[in-house]
Amino acid sequence: MNLLKTPIHANAGTELSSIGSQLVRPECVLATRSGSLYTADWRGGVAQVLPDGTENLFTGTMPDGLTARPNGIALMADGSFLMAQLGETDGGVYRLTRDGQITPWLRQVNGVDLPPTNYVVQDAAGRTWITVSTLLTPRAAAYRGDVADGFIVCVDVSGHASIVADGLGYTNEVAIHPSGRWLYVNETFGRRLSRFELRADGALGARETVTEFGAGTFPDGMAFDEEGAAWIVSIVSNRLIRVMPDGSQRIHLEDNEHEHLSWVEEAFQGHTMCRPHLDGIRSQRLRNISSIAFAGPDRRTGVLGCLLGNHLETLPMPVAGVAPFHWNFS
């Protein structure tokens, strides 16, 4: 196990260690009570990392000859997974069973094919939330910060899918606030954390800005703690930020090179940011943090997934996380 006692710009007591070693683009991390961690894996499915570091890979053959490129994943009660397909031009949500069967779960909304799809998550009310970051091809055309064509899909308990919010600045992860009153969403290149009032029928109210992020911060994944704060991870700058209910922010951890971050920021402000700015990461250890989950029996271990990594990073957290909907699933 690798251990970093003093990562760049970390709060006192923050220690990073790693688990797993053969993962491919572990973008989205899920934790369960049993101690198993699951992550999207670009070998074509979902990787499981057991507490002792043992890895299992669940994959299969996609229909129509497509290649599975899962970005967000959701663990279902029967042990299967939903995968948000982030292909070059194809999207939608697919179901993957542990014996290797992949079938379409949602390909269209309002009769229109879903473009490359970012994230999928289920909630305790039986709804499924799906995000699409942009309609542009390639997606990197939306990195420049002046594009707001992302949207959120809700699939209700009857299976009806509808677009419930649009006009978002590169829609990324969504999460239900612990109170159940709000749906939160990261707008990566809109550089803000937004929320919508979540009504009983699943409809959303108007968008509200919780907080806006400054230079070098591009919010991607999130998870809530038991005090109602949101923990936000930023690609490029490798920042882990705690956002309080009033919108105030505190950087808990970051790992980046100042000159590189300035180069990226200049491109973003000039509306010329593209793939090299995202992929050419310069850091001591972290490789584009994109996801966070609270793990361990007391949910006081943070687990970070990194777009350009081959393992997961873990660190002690100062507060326990809220149990996700899938926490007790096998």
Summarize the structure.
The protein has two helices and 27 strands.
Report on the architecture of this protein.
By secondary structure, this protein is mainly β. 5% of the residues lie in helices and 43% in strands. A five-stranded antiparallel beta sheet has the order 1-2-27-26-25, with no helix packed on it. A hairpin with a 5-residue loop joins strand 23 (239-243) and strand 24. Mean pLDDT is 94; it is low at 1-7.
Q: Strands of the biggest beta sheet: in what spatial order?
A: 1-2-27-26-25
Element-by-element helix/strand order: EEEEEEEEEEEEEEEEEEEEEEEEHHEEE
Mean pLDDT across residues: 94
Low-confidence segments, given as residue ranges, are 1-7
Q: Describe the sheet with the most strands.
A: 5 strands, antiparallel
Tell me the number of strands. 27
Q: Any idea what the radius of gyration is?
A: 18 Å
Give the N-terminus to C-terminus distance in angstroms: 26 Å
State the helicity in percent bands: under 10%
Number of helices: 2
Amount of beta strand: 35-45%
Could you name the key traits of this structure?
330 residues, mainly beta, five-stranded antiparallel beta sheet, four-stranded antiparallel beta sheet, 2 helices, 27 strands, globular, disordered N terminus
Topology:
Blueprint: E1 3-4, E2 16-19, E3 29-31, E4 37-41, E5 45-49, E6 55-59, E7 70-75, E8 81-85, E9 93-96, E10 102-106, E11 108-109, E12 112-113, E13 119-122, E14 128-132, E15 150-155, E16 161-168, E17 171-176, E18 182-187, E19 192-198, E20 204-212, E21 217-224, E22 230-236, E23 239-243, E24 249-254, H1 258-269, H2 275-279, E25 289-295, E26 301-306, E27 312-316
Antiparallel strand pairs: 1-2, 2-27, 3-4, 4-5, 5-6, 7-8, 8-9, 9-10, 11-12, 13-14, 14-15, 15-16, 17-18, 18-19, 19-20, 21-22, 22-23, 23-24, 25-26, 26-27
